[in-house]
Amino acid sequence: MFGLLRFLLSLVILWVAVFLLQEATFLYFDPRRLAGIPSNAIGYAFWRGIPMDLATACYFTLPIALLGVVLSFREVNWVRRALRPITIVFLLISGFVHVSDIGLFTAWGTKVNHKALSYLIYPEESMAAIAGAPVGQLIVIMLAQLAIALFILFRIDHQRSFLIKKGTARWTTAITIPVLLFIGMRGGVQPYPIDRSWSYHSGHSILNLGALNGTWNLIVLLAEPPEIASNPYNFMPNEEAQQRFAALHPKGHGAAEHILSTERPNVIIVLLESWTADVVGVLGGDSGVTPAFDRASRDGLLFTNFYSTGFRTEQGLCAIISGFPSQPKTTIIRQYGKFDRLPSLVDRLDSAGYSSTYYYAGDVAFANTRSYLEAMGFDKVHDETSFPIVHRTRWGAYDEELFAFHERDSRSASEPFFHVLMTSTSHEPFDVPIDEGFPGKDPSQQYRNSVHYTDRTLGSFLEECKKQPWYDRTLIVIVADHGHYLPRNRGSHMAERHRIPLLFTGGALDSTYRGTKDLTFGSHVDLPMTMLEQLGFSSFRSSWGSDLFDPTVPHFAFWTFDDGFGIADAAGVQVYDNLAGSLLQESGTPTADQKSEQLANGKALEQILLDQYIQMSQ
Fold first, then answer.
1. Exposed/middle/buried for 257, CB within 10 Å: 0-12, 13-18, 19+?
2. What is the pTM (predicted TM-score) of this model?
């Protein structure tokens, strides 16, 4: 057993060495790409790449290990002879993928993706696409790496005996070795297997791509469905869709209302997990579930017609930070080569001297969130590894521990700062073992119970904020990341499921607006533009969203679900099913012309959204 283990370990070390060499070649192929990047950041990229390198090494070692298990039972000549050639084939594949990545990065700024793979069915076009690439250099690189790898490979003894005489030891080996390699392939025994987010760690795209193992990336690409290649929602001629989109997003005349009592305030955004208006008393929801939020609304500015862009946290996050709506059937935060091309509210504030921190009490790598946050330029990203956790649910520490950590950490924060806190306790399966006065095992009661808990800790957090020296200079924005079907079992398409709370409060809110309500319709994508206008920064690359306080522009809410969209404004609500080609919901009292225009606008928005989404990888 130990002879086979030593042999396999030698192969794993060989593969990791090859991958580190490939990473170095990728990063230093054109040193100008690294201009302005600190050397310690470049060194850290190598460190971040090692877990994925090890996982890929385990993928390539597994077939050899299975043949080695056969040889531990009996010597089979053809099996013995196959060991080295299999590794050589894998080295050739890995080398080809690596030089392809270098060429693609030169041309597209990305590594191999579905779009690149789709070109393989068009050989002539593929050759034309790489005509400008330094093919000669890439061939030399590939041959040199292969020569170095083969030099090491042929010094690993492939003829040593793996025979095991004892039957028990044989079967132990046959089970243990594949299990160890499968654990290595998934990156360890953590709940979620390794994914691309493990390599995304920097605001410098080249460092993220350098740490992303190209061969592993190809394996995943072959296993996952291809990206959307053409727009499935061509409802109207592109010119008409563009005209409607432009009419819905005109350039405004600036904020008619200025709600701040100070210039350049600190900004704290509290994202409430799964809060729907159906449980917020001040929004007409269930009474007694959110008493702290209801009290806070009497000291703040509450929007009563605010909607989530989607139904997942990552969708709301992308809309709030990048001003980009959720998409049917896909999520941009999961698409490398797309999300890192989005505009960033964080970057805009950073250029104005703001420090930025993201706080979460769970696994921030889930759903590529860390990758997105790093790409958006957050200075610090805190998660469950940043502080000791006393109590936790399946999703992370209790919200009160998250708020307490922020209170401690913010004492030394440099001003002005931009902080985002993402709560988690009110996420399914609502396993907070605290009695909040909503007894029973009914999911609706458990949901109310968890929301009430978060509400109570939110109230305590706001009181603690008032004691901080920075409070008078701070705007606090409280908004849900998305709604929820509970407690009233709302369908995924329903407008009521997407209606969520939005509250502006804090010491920097002008006293004129305390205790007021705003009936303006809006959604997550409006927040970046709204906040930048209030702070005095008007430039933002997103073509979506409007300043909620500007009466000179149209205001509406637009959201998507699996294969449809919803649109709401002061005239009414319409929800459209793309597959059925019919309305799922409509309300309000619009005229026939108003209904027709609103529906056409919704179709134009969805069509433009998918056009933009597809074009981000072109």
1. middle
2. 0.79
